[in-house]
Amino acid sequence: MTSVRQQDHHQVPSTNDNCHVPHTIESLEESQIAIVGLGLMGGSLAGGLRHRCRSVVGVARRPDSIAVALERGLIDHGTTSLSEGVSQSNVVVLATPVRVILQQIAEIGPLLPAECLLLDLGSTKTRIVQAMAELPDHVQPLGGHPMCGKEMSGIEAAEPNIYRGATFILTPLPRTSEQALRLGRELVEAVGSRPLVISAERQDFLVGTVSHLPYLMACALVATADATTSTDPAAWKIVAGGYRDTTRVAGSDVTMMTDILLTNRDEVLAAVNVFQRQIDRLAQLVESGDGEQMRDALNQIRQERLRMYP
Amino acid sequence: MTSVRQQDHHQVPSTNDNCHVPHTIESLEESQIAIVGLGLMGGSLAGGLRHRCRSVVGVARRPDSIAVALERGLIDHGTTSLSEGVSQSNVVVLATPVRVILQQIAEIGPLLPAECLLLDLGSTKTRIVQAMAELPDHVQPLGGHPMCGKEMSGIEAAEPNIYRGATFILTPLPRTSEQALRLGRELVEAVGSRPLVISAERQDFLVGTVSHLPYLMACALVATADATTSTDPAAWKIVAGGYRDTTRVAGSDVTMMTDILLTNRDEVLAAVNVFQRQIDRLAQLVESGDGEQMRDALNQIRQERLRMYP
Fold first, then answer.
1. pLDDT-based confidence at B248, cuts 50/70/90?
2. In whole angstroms, how far apart are CA B227 and each of A209, A216, B73?
3. Does B124 contact chain A (CB < 8 Å)?
4. Residues of A in contact with B242 (CB under 8 A)
């Protein structure tokens, strides 16, 4: 177990202090926030929140990640002990891969102070919210999913700015209090994101199509080139901007994506199914050689894309 | 017919002059270059070449495009007449959609001076090179395809910088002289691109996978969202960077893309076929729920992507 502290004026309560966290905290400013998982998303969130709350405690398995987070000024205090990190915090954010989040939810309840807000950053929400429903009554659970990121991972890639301007989905449970949801919104807005409150099922349907499907497509494109053109050295010289952008998300963190695909299986497979019908339709147009029909179809798609990104 | 001239010190020969273009021009510097088609690619090329040669003549159907190109300093002289534009030029670049290029190649031969280099910017090359083989003997044909662009089109979007650092494919014919190929390379390098000399068939196979397939994928992704999630207003708020990048090329010029797909049909359909097998394989992994196998497959793809873009 490692416990290190930022060498500055911030005083953070350690587990040896005998002080008590107030049971109802109204504002972010008064909060001690524990971020569990100091990767790209957790590290970036920590940095964005640090000067907007009382203090930020980073919890990570690897002491190296804590050292980097302290050095980069993203956290006030760091520990490898989950219980030490969360026991005095009134906001706890789980920023680990989805299947780890599910395990942590099952274990963390007894460690949390009364009325603690437990938020997570997992990209799929239905199973997480189901697990959150089993938490002890003294915990305030709230599902979360920031719609941002980049293809790099790890604390080295962390930068608070990635949250700026992004939509941050919040999926409250029936048991989530208004006060806890208000604190969740405040946290989201503090890092420059826009909260969007929807149900877990609706979010999983939507991200299945606008996020998980594009990832699988990008992977299939890379695999296609790997199976065909990549043996030709000229192929590497002609990969233009279109291919680079279209395949960018294939560089996403593999552990994170595996967990996402496994925990949103039905929505992802349904989206793949619709996608395959669309590809078949386009391929039939190409095969038919009907220029007029093809133009019309491609133009309709182009207009739709322009509506999405004016 | 419109003929207008840049109000500056550049003297360009008009068809009324009785001067003769030298029959063998060794360098770009001495060349008068006609760019036929003042869209994104033609306009940008004109601007990049203008101060690297004797003069640039822009040929466009619409007087408006010529006016904009002159106003933006992309050309020295402009005309709506193909014969006026090309008859005194020793380099002619066809920068129109592929099916227009095919028509222009069939008509332009008698209008061109002896030893004139006829280059095109069409994205598919096999059919263009076949058409070029039928040109009169006094013409020096050379297929070209710059691997750059953006989703906007038209002279307003033109900027010479788009050629910088891009690979510019050149597909010479057996009849293309060494001198003509040398002049083609010089032109490519003058706008900051890297020439890559390969056969027309090889280029069509490669771009079928790394350029035309990604376009169809992007279109199918947009069509999928249109058919499912787009009816939910929340979908528009959560489209994150991944979706934006993956679908960017679906905003490409529709006339250009229709021509490309129709003239590279067999390669495009073959690429779609391989892609569908890859998608099926990934969907089966998701369905199986085997986390280990999925991780391995996604990791291999991620490594391949990192090799493409280190």
1. very high
2. 10, 18, 44
3. no
4. 149, 211, 214-215, 248-249, 252
